[in-house]
Amino acid sequence: MTSKALIKSFYESDLANDETVIDQFYHKDCIIFWNSSKGLSERNFDEISLFFKGVRESYNDLRFDTTHLLEEDNLVTARYTLYACTIESEGDEIPLAHYICIYHIKDNKIHRAYEISQPADKDTIDSNAFSEIKL
Q1: What is the DSSP track for 67-80?
Q2: Which positions make up the signal peptide (predicted)?
Q3: What is the CATH number of the domain that holds 105?
């Protein structure tokens, strides 16, 4: 599987319900560096697993709306908006955040991830800034 296909498969997985996804896609030595509206956080495999346990407890569904997915060797760059359905309002999908991620793939798993995110709001969703661009 190519690095790009791996990330695409990760985005298409049932991250909100399948507890095996982290073992399936993340390297045991992985580290995620995430710049969010709350500042920089760094997570290792165990911390990532704990984070996604909380995600599974809060959301019924997650959807990655990807606008860019670029590959060069074992690096993949992705740009997407993350949408979710909460447990409280199962039928209503809400935009959570916009992301740009650079993934380093090792042994066909995510070994490093460098993520930048900002909260999604109606203005950004309604703009053309997050529309898919054909390259």
Answers
A1: EEEEEETTEEEEEE
A2: none
A3: 3.10.450.50
pLDDT one-digit tens code per residue, 54-92: 999 999 999 999 999 999 999 999 999 999 998 888 778
* Tally of residues, the chain: 135
Distance CA 108, CA 27 (A): 8
Give how many domains the chain has, as a whole number: 1
User: pTM here?
Assistant: 0.87
CA separation for the pair 118, 134 (Å, rounded): 23
In a domain, 90, yes or no: yes
The answer as to whether 7 is a domain residue is yes
Instruction: Render pLDDT for 8-31 as a digit per residue (tens, 0 to 9).
Output: 999 999 999 999 999 999 999 999
Asked whether 102 and 117 are in contact (CB, 8 A), the reply is no
